[in-house]
UniProtKB/TrEMBL annotation:
Residues 6-60 form the HTH cro/C1-type domain. It comes from Pelosinus baikalensis. The lineage of its organism: Bacteria, Bacillati, Bacillota, Negativicutes, Selenomonadales. PANTHER family: HTH-TYPE TRANSCRIPTIONAL REGULATOR XRE, TRACRIPTIONAL REGULATORY PROTEIN-RELATED-RELATED. This is Helix-turn-helix domain-containing protein. It holds the Pfam family HTH_3.
Length: 112
């Protein structure tokens, strides 16, 4: 995937492999190996390439098809909509609150 993206970006800019290699301060042979997926650039070189083409490393690596959009990690949170203590009598709820305060004191938290 990386090699294809590199070649596509280079050709869009109408650059030769030598011109791009010079811009990245690497040999043309090294760069050519990147395009044919024979070698992979180190992280520092990937960043230089991404900066040169004004794309994200996620795009270079094929994690997204959007050149300038970072792939976001989706977090899904679940929560209860019912109150599991709603059926407890008031004295039970007070006991729970007292226990919570005791634990805060015991473990060094200030009472609320």
């Amino acid at each position: 995937m990386l090699g294809e993206r590199l070649k596509q970006l280079r050709e869009q800019k109408k650059l030769t492999q030598q011109e791009l290699a010079d811009a990245l301060n690497i040999s043309r042979g090294t760069y050519a190996h990147y395009e044919i997926n024979r070698r992979e650039p180190d992280d520092s070189t990937k960043l230089k390439i991404a900066d040169f083409f004004d794309v994200t490393t996620d795009y270079l690596l094929g994690r997204t098809d959007e050149p300038n959009t970072v792939k976001k990690i989706q977090t899904i949170a679940a929560h209860r909509t019912d109150d599991p203590m709603s059926d407890l009598p008031p004295e039970a709820i007070r006991s729970i609150e007292e226990f919570k305060e005791l634990m805060r004191i015991k473990y060094g938290k200030k009472p609320t």
